[in-house]
Structure formats: structure tokens, C-alpha cells
């Protein structure tokens, strides 16, 4: 069997959005699974809207996600001449013709069809022109478009879409479509096919919005005598109100860049995106790279559109909760050694990094990261709710402050006493810290939970986390005592 070859052909008119990334991921998985090749082709023929920044952003996004390609980036704009030559080749072989009809003529015919309540289709006026007339118009430099000549007779285009099944479109329902504009530029429909033929593409996995192009594109393949690739059109990803997702209406949250900048692990995003539109044969949801490549099959692609359950109202993080929970899963279970450099980056960005975390305090750093990650969702949490472990300047979550501190009139006095007990310990160990806490609670006639919750709130600013006495060990006796004392004397400020 010949080599399996796929392509990811983004139009560089914006950022890499999650829909585009999903397309890239499916093509990549298919190529990897079948020991094939993935080609990156930048479809930049829309000169007005294509930008260098967008190309750089797409490449950066793919690199970050770990989507590797084997050839390219190729640029569609390098092949415009070839696209036009192909159109002329189609004219020469009788599969296309020059159409000199003016915009006004066409518009009048369209209007007439509308008035008669008939569907408009180009009436092939220029197909009837004899060679003499054509030569005369050419000599006059009359502007023309090139139209593809759809085969006559009662045939149809039939193909087996790998997701949507058998699709048939009668030739009579396909207008002789334009392949070269009157300004001489080729249409996307043509360029895309010419490039796919040159790149020897065997499988086209693209959005369902491309389905309308496929019958016309197949006619071009056939006219050129080129093998037609397999097509798999993917369902779309919509927002909860079933609207198309776009940066304009949803903001940064639909861009890959957003996840990169907001503490996501690239593989977690890949894992999330792949499940938007594809289901494995089992109910497995978390996949390693190898597992995903093995499990991926076009048969698992969903016909129904998927929903990106993005919510603007979640104060924790504005994205699909499933994306967040998959990220949390990886963050909490990955080898801690692999996490350290990522946490280091976050700390560096916030000026909280200390070189000792890689020398004398290496063990402390590793253990602390491991301890606190169990409640975290993104890398940003290490400098958000986790800040108190790396700095004395941290925020207090108002909810636990209210519940664990403000509510108890005498809490600052009690926590001052606890600080003294901690200070009196010959060794600030987990067992001893717990023992004196419980002892003090008994003496004061209060529940130990009051001291425990109050202490957690003061020393971490947070409502929840790992077991308090583990937390205290990580923060260290000196800092714990200083924070409790400060609170008992000055309150929170
Ligand atoms: N450049 C097209 C896009 O970004 C690609 C369509 C295709 O895959 O054929 O939508």
C-alpha cells in the first residue's frame, strides 16, 4: 500500500483556535497511527488577510501542543502559477472554459430566476461560444473567469465519507463553478486540490464545513486524472448555545495561546480536544500519547457536533470544566520530577524563584510541589493559592477568613497562644505540632478544628489543602510561628 499522507492546511488569518488545533490533532494521530506523514501547508493565498504573526502563532501553538509534522511548512502562495496553469490545462482538455459574462449579465439572470422562483445556476452561455468568438474576445482583452465544466448527462459524484457515510450529489445540481477569477487569481477550491495532488495527500480530515466543497473538488481530481483521497469530515465544535465558537464572541479562551499562558499542560489540552468529536471504543478518557495513537480510529468520530462547555461565570477559570479537570488530572499525577521545571517557570515569572530550590532546598521544593498539587488545576495555582509556600506576601481568600477567623471572637488570642506553644517545641515536627494543637484546644475547651482551620487560613490564606500538619511542615516552623504571631498582634493586613 502506498504511504499514508495527511495535511494540516491552516489559513493564517488569525490565531490557532481550538477547532483548528483539533483538526491538526486528528490528522496527526491518523498519520502517526498509520506510519504516515503529516504535512503542514500554510494556505496563505488570501494575501489581504494572511499575516506573518498568524503563521508564527500557528507554528508556535502546534509546537507547544507537541503536534509534529514531517514536511513543510509549505506555502500555498508559492504555487499560484501552478494553480493557474492547471486551470489552463483543464481548458485545454475540455474540462473548463473561459466565461466572459459580465457581473451585470449574471446578476440580471439571477434576479430573473428569483422572480420566477427558480433556483439560479449559471446557464453556460459561454460554453456555447464558438472558437471564433472566443478568439475575438481574447483579442479585445475582455475580462473572463475560468469555469469548471461539470460533466453533462445524468451522472453524479459519489463518495464514501469516513464519518458521514455515502454522499451523492447529482451533476445537474452543481453549477459550472469558477476556478480562476477575472483578476487572474485561482480560487481556493482549485488551489487546495492542486496542492493536495502535488503533496500526494491520501486522506483529508477536515471540518464538516468543508463538506460542501468536496463534490466539486472530486470533479477536479477526476478531470485531472488524479487519485481521489479519502475524506473524513469532522463534526464542529459549538458553544453551549449551539453557536460557532470564535474569538470575537468568546475571547481568548478559544485560542491555544490562552491555554499556554494560563497554566495548561499541552498534553492535557490535546487529550481534552481529541474527545471533542471523537470517542474511543472503551470509556477510557485519559490517554498517553502512545495509547491515543493506538486507540484513534476514524470510526470513533462523532457525527453530532460537540459542545465546548465554556462558561463565563466560573470564577475559577473560564473554560470548559472538563478541560480543567483533565488538566488537573495530569498536574496531580504526572511524575513530580517533570513538574518541577514547569513550576519553576511560574515562580520565576512572579519573582518568587529561589536558586536554593535547586540546591540545598531541592528536597523541600520537590516535596512541597508534590504536597500542594493535589488540589490544583493549573500551573498558575502554584503562584495563586500556592503562593504562601513561596512568599510571605500572599492573599487571603475572604470566605475562609470569614468562616474560620472573623466568626470566632477570640481566635487571634488563641492562635497567639498556639504560636507560643509551637515556639516552645524543641523540634517542630508534625507529631509534636499536632499534639500541642490538640492539647491547647482541650485546655481552651474548644474543638481542635477551630485551631486547625484558623491556622490554615492564617498561614496559607486558603480554605483547603493537604492535611494541616503536613502543610505546617512544608511552610516550616519559623514562618508558621511568625505568621500566627503577626496575625494575633495585627490581624490580617
Ligand atoms: N485552509 C482551509 C481552512 O483553514 C483548509 C480546508 C481544508 O482542509 O481543505 O479552513
Explain this structure to me?
With 493 residues, this protein is mostly helical. Among the domains are: 78-191, Glutamyl-tRNA Synthetase, domain 3, CATH 3.90.800; 396-490, Arc Repressor Mutant, subunit A. It is built from 20 helices and 12 strands. The chain has helices at 18-33, 52-65, 80-92, 103-115, 131-139, 188-198, 214-223, 247-250, 256-261, 266-274, 289-295, 321-333, 336-349, 362-372, 398-406, 411-423, 430-444, 448-460, 468-475, 477-490; strands spanning 5-8, 37-42, 71-75, 96-99, 145-148, 156-161, 165-170, 178-180, 203-207, 230-234, 237-238, 306-307. The strands form 5 sheets. Strands 1-2-3 form a 3-stranded parallel beta sheet. It has a 3-stranded antiparallel beta sheet with strand order 4-5-8. A two-stranded antiparallel sheet has the order 6-7. Strand 6 and strand 7 (165-170) form a beta hairpin. The protein is elongated, with a radius of gyration of 32 Å. Residues 9-11, 43, 192, 206, 210 line the site of glutamic acid (GLU).
Spatial strand arrangement across the major sheet:
1-2-3
Largest sheet, in brief, is:
3 strands, parallel
- N/C terminus separation: 72 Å
Share in β-strands: 5-15%
Q: Nutshell version of this structure?
A:
This protein is mostly helical. The chain has helices at residues 18-33, 52-65, 80-92, 103-115, 131-139, 188-198, 214-223, 247-250, 256-261, 266-274, 289-295, 321-333, 336-349, 362-372, 398-406, 411-423, 430-444, 448-460, 468-475, 477-490; strands at residues 5-8, 37-42, 71-75, 96-99, 145-148, 156-161, 165-170, 178-180, 203-207, 230-234, 237-238, 306-307.
Amino acid at each position: 500500500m502506498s504511504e499514508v499522507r495527511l495535511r494540516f492546511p491552516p489559513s493564517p488569518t488569525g490565531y490557532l483556535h481550538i477547532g483548528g488545533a483539533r483538526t491538526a490533532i486528528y490528522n496527526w494521530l491518523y498519520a502517526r497511527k498509520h506510519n504516515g506523514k503529516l504535512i503542514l501547508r500554510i494556505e496563505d493565498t488570501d494575501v489581504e488577510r494572511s499575516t506573518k504573526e498568524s503563521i508564527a502563532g500557528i507554528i508556535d501553538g502546534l509546537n507547544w501542543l507537541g503536534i509534529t509534522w514531517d514536511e513543510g511548512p509549505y506555502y500555498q502562495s508559492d504555487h499560484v502559477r501552478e494553480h493557474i496553469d492547471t486551470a489552463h490545462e483543464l481548458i485545454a482538455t475540455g474540462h473548463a472554459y473561459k466565461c466572459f459574462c459580465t457581473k451585470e449579465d449574471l446578476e440580471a439572470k439571477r434576479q430573473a430566476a428569483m422572480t420566477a422562483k427558480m433556483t439560479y445556476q449559471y446557464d453556460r452561455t459561454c460554453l456555447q461560444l464558438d472558437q471564433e468568438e472566443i478568439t475575438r474576445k481574447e483579442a479585445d482583452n475582455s475580462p473572463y473567469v475560468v469555469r469548471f465544466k461539470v460533466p453533462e448527462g445524468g451522472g453524479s459524484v459519489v463518495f464514501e465519507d469516513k464519518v458521514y457515510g455515502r454522499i451523492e450529489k447529482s451533476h445537474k445540481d452543481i453549477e459550472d463553478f469558477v476556478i480562476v477569477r477575472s483578476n487572474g487569481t485561482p480560487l481556493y477550491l482549485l488551489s487546495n486540490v492542486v496542492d493536495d495532488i502535488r503533496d500526494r495527500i491520501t486522506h483529508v480530515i477536515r471540518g464538516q464545513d468543508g463538506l460542501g466543497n468536496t463534490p466539486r473538488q472530486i470533479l477536479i481530481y477526476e478531470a485531472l486524472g488524479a487519485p481521489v483521497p479519502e475524506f473524513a469530515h469532522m463534526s464542529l465544535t459549538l458553544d453551549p448555545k449551539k453557536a460557532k465558537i470564535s474569538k470575537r464572541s468568546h475571547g481568548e479562551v478559544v485560542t491555544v495561546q490562552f491555554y499556554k499562558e494560563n497554566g495548561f499542560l499541552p498534553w492535557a489540552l490535546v487529550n481534552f480536544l481529541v474527545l471533542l468529536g471523537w470517542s474511543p471504543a472503551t470509556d477510557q478518557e485519559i490517554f498517553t500519547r502512545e495509547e491515543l495513537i493506538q486507540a484513534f480510529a476514524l470510526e470513533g468520530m462523532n457525527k453530532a457536533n460537540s459542545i465546548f462547555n465554556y462558561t463565563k461565570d466560573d470564577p475559577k477559570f473560564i473554560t470548559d470544566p472538563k478541560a480543567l479537570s483533565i488538566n488537573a488530572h495530569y498536574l496531580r499525577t504526572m511524575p513530580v520530577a517533570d513538574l518541577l521545571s514547569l513550576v519553576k517557570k511560574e515562580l520565576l515569572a512572579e519573582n518568587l524563584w529561589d536558586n536554593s530550590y535547586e540546591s540545598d532546598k531541592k528536597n523541600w521544593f520537590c516535596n512541597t510541589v508534590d504536597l500542594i498539587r493535589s488540589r490544583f488545576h493549573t500551573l498558575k495555582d502554584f503562584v495563586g493559592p500556592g503562593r504562601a509556600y513561596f512568599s510571605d506576601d500572599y492573599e487571603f481568600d475572604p470566605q475562609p477568613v470569614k468562616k474560620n477567623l472573623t466568626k470566632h471572637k477570640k481566635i487571634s488570642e488563641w492562635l497567639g497562644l498556639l504560636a507560643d506553644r509551637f515556639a516552645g517545641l524543641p523540634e517542630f515536627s508534625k507529631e509534636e505540632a499536632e499534639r500541642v494543637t490538640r492539647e491547647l484546644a482541650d485546655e481552651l475547651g474548644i474543638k481542635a478544628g477551630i485551631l486547625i482551620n484558623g491556622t490554615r487560613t492564617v498561614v496559607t490564606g486558603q480554605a483547603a489543602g493537604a492535611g494541616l500538619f503536613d502543610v505546617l511542615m512544608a511552610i516550616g516552623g519559623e514562618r508558621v510561628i511568625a505568621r500566627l504571631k503577626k496575625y494575633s498582634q495585627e490581624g490580617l493586613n
